[in-house]
Structure formats: structure tokens, C-alpha cells
Amino acid sequence: LSSLHTGEPRKYDPTFKGPTQHRGCTDIVCCIFFILAILAYFAVGILAWSQGDPRKVIYPTDSRGQFCGQAGTPLDPMVLLEFQCPTTQVRSPPESVSRGVNGSHTHTHTHTHTHTHTHTHTHTRSQASLCRNATVVIEARQVVMKIFEDYTQSWYWILIGLVIAMLLSLLFIVLLRFLAGIMVWIMVALVIIVIGYGIFHCYMEYAALKGEPGADVTLQDLGFQADFTVYLQIRQTWLAFMIILAIVEVIIILLLIFLRKRLLIAIALIKEASRAIGYVMCSLFYPLFTFLLLAVVIAYWAVTAVFLSTSNEPVYKVFNDSDCEHSRKTCDPAVSSLLPVPRRRRFFRNVTRLKRSYLIGLQFYNVFLFLWCANFVTALGQMTLAGAFASYYWAFVKPDDMPSFPIFSSLGRSLRYHTGTLAFGSLILSTIQIIRVLLEYLDHKLKGAQNKCARFVLCCLKCCFWCLEKFVKFLNRNAYIMTAIYGKNFCTSARDAFFLLMRNMIRVAVLDKVTDFLLFLGKLLIVGLVGVFAFFFFSGRVKAFEDTAPNLHYYWVPILTVVIGSYLIAHGFFSVYSMCVDTLFLCFLEDLERNDGSAERPYLMPESLRKVLKKKNKGQPAE
Fold first, then answer.
1. Cβ distance 448 to 55 under 8 Å?
2. Rounded Cα gap, residues 566 and 549, in angstroms
3. Where is this region: Disordered (predicted)?
4. pLDDT score of 171
């Protein structure tokens, strides 16, 4: 019964020497389907580029659909400035507007040209309401302009901060190569020290604001403020920061205490990952290739989305204050001179832009293919790295039994034989993600709804699909590792990986996650160091930087940019480490099942791992 739930353990195979060299194509149907979908995606892009005009997003248009402020407008500028002279037939506009916004009233006025007719207008909005909305719009525009100005003033220093983050990440990985054990413990200690200093700094700021005017205002009373520095002038902000950092500090310390025994195995696994990366150094630069492909996918999606949104056809109608037969009828501005409407009173309005029946469908297809392609690129990187590191683990004599170029060999195998498998796994993940996008859209539309039952069901669905996405990502990652090793299709690889992990559930729950936790601390350390440096530099708190730091409206803009960018850079480097650890972990589990340490079936795991696990090969004493 147990074998039905967890599968049969892997049996010893004397012919197995690492990633299978003689393999066939997998998931061919999905590969063909993916290629057809890509060709259709190109067709959508060509259609959008031929029909769309991105100038509609940047420049406003007049009633004839011509772009304002652009050269080549066929109309005479004097015609655009030709207004009717004031007459006694129209009330004074300032008076009407003033009375209209000061309260709810109805006024009637009559225009007499060729026909006499009456227009009645009712205004119900107060002047305060209109001014409030206008103020919000103006303030938002001012904030955006100030943020843009801050970027123009600080982009050079932001790039320097990102370069520092890249150098720190590279230095950290190089040090891990030679001093993995020491670096892990130093990393743990530094993370605790950095967070501890953050708690101390927050307390000092909290104490310094005691008795300051306005410092005791609560965050709820303050509300939203565009200027972030306002929040730093009240005590409650620093108290909240201090409490959050203290909770994080306690959680990290408790995890280290309870998982101290598993840390030794995790450190041994990280040491082995460092050695593997040392033999496959070009793997550190593979994330640049992944980033380049993702940049191409994102750019194609964004450009196609803009062109699609501007590929709709405008419909023009004649609007004037006469009762002629052509009033409010559709027209073509190019032949508008043929209409028998007085020139002085004739103008056109772009009443509506009729969206083509297929436009929404094309936008949906654009988003779905973007997710599919992005997940495919990520999956390709995972399988490529997995194949390279698996060839290292299963090599009996390193590096003699390894391919000359492990990364290129693995990349070639992945594209030649397993494009369909990559497409299949990324298709499943993309389907779940597009469902999550639709649920978020529905949640946005139902924010004002009073049906609590519908909101509750929607919230449950969002939670379930979030959990499902995390599980599928985890399963896909391990399935790609098994495919890179054995060359089987997606379903078989996913099943084998799942059963292998189920047979070693305790090791998976503890060892693998402890390793991920240590790598996360490494990313946290790099982001923390760069973030602290950026804070003291851009805020001008250090006198040595006062003359060098740029003068900014919001100094948190470059700080936040540097912190986010540093995390992405550190994540790119550490993702190689994470993939290496996951691959070696699966190989390690397979090694325990295949071999028993005898002369015929020796363990291929390194001596450091055998030492921690108290395993030994025959003829070798127990360490």
C-alpha cells in the first residue's frame, strides 16, 4: 500500500552514468501546439502594428482625429482660432459657471440661429466636490513630475548602487566557493546584527522625537501623504518599524535554534553546490541570458498591447446647435465640406471608439502568450542548469567524466529534445496564472459590491489558486530536473519527482527548506547592506556625502529603486545556487536509493555529505 502512494524506490542500474545521452523528443504534441501559438502571436503583433498608432496614447486629438501639437496638420491655424463674437443671446460664461458649481439648480437659455430651441441643464455637484477632485488630480500629477525629476537627478547614483549590489553578490558567491561553511555562519551572524542595528536605530529615532511638536500624530490621523518624509517625523512610524524588525529577529533566532542540527547538512549541501559551480563557472552568467530573453518577451508584449489598444476605429458625428438634417449623423471628416451645415457652427466630435469584436480577445491572447513565453524562458533556464549540475554530481571522476561545456550541452539537449516538455509545464502554470488575473479583475470590479457571500467565495478562490500556483511551480521545477537527468516526458518526470520527494518527506521539509532559508538570508544581507548605504547617502545623514548627494524632492525614490534592483540582482545570482542545491538534493536522494556503499554500489555523494549522514563506502572507515 505504501508503494502505491510513494512509488517504488529507484533500483541500482550499473549502466547509469548521469544525464542520459541517448534520448528522444518528449511531449511532441505540445511542442507543435506551442510553435503554432508562437506563430499566431507573431500574426497578432503584425496585425496590431499595422492597425495601431501609439501616438494616440501620447498626444491628444481634436474632433477630426488629428493629433494636436504635431506638424503636418492640414487645417489653417487661423481657422482653429476663429470663434464667434459674443452676443446678447448667450449669458456671461463666468456667471453661469459660478452659479452652476455653487449649488443644485436648473437654468434655461435659448439660442436662435435658424431654429429656436431650448437647452435645459441641471447641475447637482457642489463647488467643494469639484475642487476636491481637481486638487487630487493636480497633486498626483505634481508627485509624478517630482518623482521623474528625482530619477533624472539620481539615475547615475542608482546605477552605481546596482553595480555595488552585483559586485557584492558575485563576491559572496566566490567566497562561498572557498569558504562555504564559514561564510554561512558569518552570513547568519551579519543578518542578526544588521536587523539588530535596525531595531536600535528605530528606537533612537523614536526616542529623539519625544516631545517634538506633531510627533505624536497617529498614522490613521495622518492619512496618505505623497511626501514620505512626513511619516518619518512621527513616533508611531518608528515604533511600527521597530516592532516589525523585532518580530523578524525573533523568528530568525528561533528557526536557527530549532534547526541547528539540520544546518550542518544544509551547509554540506551548500559546500557541494559551491564546488559544482566552481566546475561550471559559466552558470553564474546564465541568468543574464534568461534576463535578456525575458526582456524581449516583456518588450514584445508591451508594444503589442499598446498597438492593439490603439487599433480601434473612431466614429465621427456632426454636432451643432441647429436642427439641420445632418446634425448628429455619422460622417467622414475628410469629406465634411460636402455637408450643408453652416461652417461657423459646424464641428465634429469623436463620439466613441468602437472596439472591434475581436479586440478584447486579442488582448487576452496577448496576455496569455506573454505568460506562457515568460514561463517557458524560466523553465528553459531551470532545465539547463539542472542538466549541467546533474552531470557534475553523477561524474565518478570530476571533472574528467563531465562534458567539456556542461551549460551548452545541457542547453542543446533541452531545446533539441525537451521543448515540448518545457512548453507543457509552462502551459499548465500559465493557465493557473491567467485564472488568477481574471479573479483579480473580478475582485477589482466587485470592490463596491455589497454581496459579502460573493466576495468571500472570490477571496477563497484567489487563495486556492495562489496555493495551486506555488505547488505547480515546485512540481515543475523538480520535473524539469528529472527530465534533464533521464530524458522522460513531463508527466512521467513529475510523477517520479513527486514520489521521490514523498519517500523523503522529512528531508524535503527540513533540509531543502533550510538551505533555501540560508540562501534567502544571503539575499537579505546583500539587500540590507546596499539599502543602508543608499539610505545614508541619499538622505544626507552623513556629512561626507552632503555635497555629493543629489538634491531630491523625495529621497526615498532612489532608495526604493536601489533596494528593489539589488534584490532582483541578488536573486538572479542566488537562483543559480538555488537550482544547483535543488538538483544536487534530488541526485543525493537518488544516490541513497540506488547505492548502499558497497564496492559494487558505492555512494557518489561527496565525503562531506557522507560524513554528516554517517554513511561510508566499503573499505572506508566511518567518520
1. no
2. 19
3. 90-122
4. 84
DSSP tag of 232? G
Q: Alpha-carbon distance 465 to 471, whole Å? A: 10
DSSP state of 351: E
pLDDT digits 0-9 by tens, 102-112 = 444 444 444 44
Q: What b/e readout covers 149-182, taking b as 16+ CB neighbours within 10 angstroms?
A: ebeebbeebbeebbebbbebbeebbbebbeebee
> Which element (helix H / strand E) includes 433?
helix 419-445
Distance CA 16, CA 388 (A): 16
d(CA 432, CA 96): 55
Helix (H) or strand (E) holding 134, with range, is: helix 127-208
Half-sphere exposure of 389 (CA within 13 A, CB side): 32
Measured distance CA(618)–CA(485) in Å, rounded:
27
What CA dihedral angle connects 529, 530, 535 and 538, to 10 degrees?
150
Identify whether the C-beta of residue 582 lies closer than 8 Å to the C-beta of residue 478.
yes
Summarize pLDDT for 437-464 with one digit per residue, the tens.
999 888 887 776 667 788 888 889 999 9
3 state SS of 515: helix
**Cβ(328)–Cβ(317) below 8 Å:** yes
**Short-list 574, 584, 471, 469, CA closest to 516:** 574
- Upper half-sphere CA count for residue 283 (Cβ side, 13 Å): 34
CB of 579 closer than 8 Å to CB of 186:
no
Q: Fill in the amino acid letter for 556.
A: W
Residue ranges covered by each domain of the chain? 28-314+351-613
Convert 241-278 into a string of H (helix), E (strand) and C (coil).
Answer: HHHHHHHHHHHHHHHHHHCHHHHHHHHHHHHHHHHHHH
Radius of gyration of the chain (CA): 33
Q: Facing residues of 118 across strands?
A: 110
3-state helix/strand/coil string of 150-195: HHHHHHHHHHHHHHHHHHHHHHHHHHHHHHHHHHHHHHHHHHHHHH
pTM: 0.72
Instruction: State how far the Cα of 401 lies from the Cα of 268, in Å rounded to an integer.
Output: 23
SS3 label, residue 391: helix
Which amino acid is present at 27?
D
Spatial contact of 291 and 40, defined as CB atoms under 8 Å apart:
no
Residue found under cell 543525493: 588
Burial class (CB in 10 A: 0-12, 13-18, 19+), 128: exposed
Listed as ranges, residues in the chain with pLDDT below 50 are 1-4, 76, 78-83, 92, 94-125, 130, 339, 341-354, 621-623
3-state secondary structure of 529: helix
DSSP letters for 565-612: HHHHHHHHHHHHHHHHHHHHHHHHHHHHHH--SSSSS---S-HHHHHH
Output b/e per residue, 225-251; b: 16+ Cβ within 10 A.
Answer: eeeeeebebbbbbbbebbeebbeebee
Residue 114's pLDDT is what? Answer: 41
CB 233 within 8 A of CB 214: yes
